[in-house]
Design brief:
Radius of gyration: 31 Å
Number of strands: 14
Strand content: 15-25%
CATH superfamily of the largest domain: P-loop containing nucleotide triphosphate hydrolases
Largest sheet: 5 strands, parallel
Shape: flat
Distance between the termini: 78 Å
Number of helices: 14
CATH topology of the largest domain: Rossmann fold
CATH class of the largest domain: Alpha Beta
CATH architecture of the largest domain: 3-Layer(aba) Sandwich
Helix content: 40-55%
Length: 370
């Protein structure tokens, strides 16, 4: 057809340089009479550009952690530094910030990734049950111990154990945990034989353990053993620029889950999201969008699809703006009447410029009553 052709980003089969990506553009050479006499081919090597774009995508979604803000980039760098060392890590942050995802990233990004990752919620169990769960027990150790049980530390041997809500453990569990960290060994409940383990410990809390230690509510020696390196997760309200990325991420996930084709949230919803304090952090935005997916029958999520608290905020804002407009109108009218509609004097009285006053008179459609 004697037309230019462009083939974008073709991956080449090249033994010397596997994964090479090129873009090829060809243009025909035609005489004035349209006679074909050859072609020009331009080959652009875009391997480096593609690699950079791939890295950027990974940095925006790092082991399931979503964010491109400066705070999140620093977090990714710290996690990368910690992946291949065996240092104990304390992950801190408010509820819903994604502390478990950090534990996943530390484990699966490091040398222990092909070994077990064992997770324990320390606040979900009573002291006796937690002790048995962590360290195991032998048959007859207590009422109901009808057979030997392997504890979580033993199951995590060679891998990583993630201790969530570590601030809630009792003093006796704190003491036992301190020994495991220091000596890499423990005894099962009801047994005196020590068991050696090679386990990396990642702990997490939404409490201020330093304050608890100062008040005598937490062992200070354990606190410092756990907090060799602290990974502090920022609350969502401090990284609002990541909200659009999070929204897109959850829309993609929920479209698959609910087999829907929702493409976005409305501008009003995004405005609400950007101004909302998000006390529940990323978990709250996930649940809010799941709620919206259940109710939404359109391709775009609107304010009416959101949980009740967002509707209340939207209604309160609308009411506030209406009251503000009414108050503004009254103030302007009073200033104009006091100055016999001398706009320069009225503007000085209101503390605004003449241009602003003229704009508001026009906006509120204010007229002098004869």
């Amino acid at each position: 057809k004697k037309q230019p052709v462009e083939l974008c980003r073709i991956e080449c089969s090249n033994n010397k340089w596997p994964g090479q990506v090129v873009t090829i553009t060809t243009s025909p050479l035609l005489s004035r009479r349209g006679v074909f006499s050859g072609a020009v081919m331009v080959v652009r090597d875009e391997t480096h550009l593609v690699s950079l774009e791939r890295d950027l995508r990974k940095r925006r979604q790092f082991h399931g952690i979503i964010g491109k803000s400066e705070e999140m980039q620093k977090l990714y760098s710290l996690i990368e530094d910690l992946c291949n060392v065996q240092t104990t890590v304390l992950v801190t942050g408010e509820s819903g910030t994604g502390k478990e995802l950090v534990a996943d990233a530390l484990h699966y990004g490091g040398v222990r990734s092909n070994r077990p990752l064992v997770k324990v919620n320390c606040s979900a169990l009573s002291e006796n049950l937690l002790e048995s769960e962590l360290f195991g027990h032998v048959k007859g150790a207590f009422t109901g111990a009808v057979q030997d049980k392997v504890g979580r530390f033993q199951r995590a041997d060679g891998g990583t154990i993630f201790l969530d809500e570590i601030g809630d453990i009792s003093p006796s569990i704190q003491l036992r945990l301190l020994r495991v960290i220091a000596e890499k060994e423990f005894e099962r409940v009801g047994d005196s034989t020590s068991i050696k383990v090679d386990v990396r410990i990642v702990a997490a809390t939404n409490q201020d353990l330093r304050k608890k230690a100062r008040r005598g509510e937490y062992r200070e020696d354990l606190y410092y053993r756990l907090r060799v390196v602290e990974v502090a997760l920022p609350p969502l309200r401090e990284r609002r620029e990541d909200l659009p990325l999070l929204v897109d991420h959850f829309i993609e996930n929920f479209n698959k889950q609910f087999t829907k084709k929702i493409v976005a949230v409305s501008a009003d919803v995004m405005k609400l999201f950007m101004n909302y304090p998000w006390p529940g952090n990323v978990r709250e935005i996930e649940h809010s969008l799941e709620h919206a997916f259940v109710l939404c029958r359109q391709s775009i999520i609107g304010v009416n699809d959101l949980p009740p608290e967002f509707k209340d905020i939207a209604e309160t804002k609308t009411s506030f703006l209406a009251n503000e407009m009414e108050d503004d109108t009254q103030a302007i009218l009073q200033a104009l009447e006091k100055t016999d509609w001398n706009k320069a004097k009225a503007a000085r009285l209101l503390g605004i410029s003449r241009q602003t006053l003229y704009r508001k008179i026009e906006m509120y459609n204010l007229l002098k009553v004869q």
